[in-house]
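thoughts on these tokens:
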Amino acid sequence: MGSINHGVRTGEKPTSIAGIIQSGNTAVIIGTAPVNTAPDPKVNTPVICYTEKEALEAFGWSDNWKEYTLCEAIDVFFRLFKVGPIVMINVLDPKVHKISVTDAAITFTKGVAKVEDKGVLLDTLEITGKVQGTDYTAEFNEDGSVNLIAITIADGDLTVSYEKLDPSAVDDEDIIGGVDPTTLKNEGLALIPNVFTKYNRVPNIGLAPGWTHIPAVAQSLVSSMKDINEVFNGIALTDIDTETIDAYSKVPEWKNENSYVHENQYNFWPRANLGDKVYHISTLVAASMYIIDQNNEDIPFESPSNKLLMTTGICLSDGTEVELNLGQANYLNDNGIATSINFNNGWRLWGNRTGCYPSNTDVKDNTITNKRMFIWDNNNFTLTYWLDVDKPATPKLMDKIVDSYNDYYNGLVTKQAILGGRIEFNQSENPTTSLIDGKYYFKRYMGPVGVAELIESDLEYDTEYLKTLFGGGN
């Protein structure tokens, strides 16, 4: 502590109560992007984006959300809800998903020719007999078409050849991904574990708008959000098909036949629109969760149900209007499917139940708030005590874990984020054989705040009030 031996001497000691690490929201969105328009294009790598500018630099922009699904996420998070950050993974590879166009006719007029095609890879574009950068330059228009600006070229007709993106070549196997046999690198959904190792953020919300109506993709997303890096978990937001399933009455059967029935799965039908724009409800709900949780100190105890989705209606994938009354919406809810209704004060999400409902009666699993709170608390515990792994297993360490987490639970009770919680280190649950093998078991109990899903009241005629007709009841 120093060499002074006469006077006042001070020092510092580590805090005996551990500070709890809370994992905030990190949505991971997998899809396709018009990377030909991006200044710094990214393919099959997780990119964290705090702003729209960062997203556009890595993924580009197009209004064609059907072919370029990540652009919907950019619009929802950064323009509609104005929240972030998000992590996006583009699987559209310009080296693979492309087609060639040769000798297409163009006409220079007043020094400018236009290539109407979208998705053009500028570095492949060649005007026959001319050199880009010497005889002409090329630049994108806002709609994704290309203007060719003459330097030495006279007005008249010429031909041009180029390669362009082919988003139709991307299929569900590209989204699901796996390990590339040549590079041995992860691709698609298999990149979700890379998010934590790259950015030190737990990927706790997973979605792939435009793809999760395909059962193989939905199942893979659900699996990918379990045991992330073998220690973390998240929730999968999945959209039910709105092309073949055009009526609410068909949805439950389709859901069960295609196994959209997991406890960490939150299902939605149909889609939503804002004017002419058609959105996937999963994307809207992911952004809504950010807003709700931010208002609650990043504690996910409040349901996204009955919260505004910033939309003007619900529809099928082709924009056909869907009408749902309260009873029909509740029928979907009763089968583990959330939807949107305009019952009172705007279009709002409607439904608290996860995909395992109604067959799974465990409230820990079948209600979105409880499921998210259990996932959140488990992730927090892992993050908080990870650095205590391999430390000496002393009573002081055991006490620190118990005392700090009980204090933490008490704080959550004070905030009314949970009804109660405790952690115990019991001798009966830690046999000598486990302790000498270096395994220590702590049991946690937590009572999340429930969802007031049904508020009931009866009204009865009380004849006693008739007495007020006679002089105040006398």
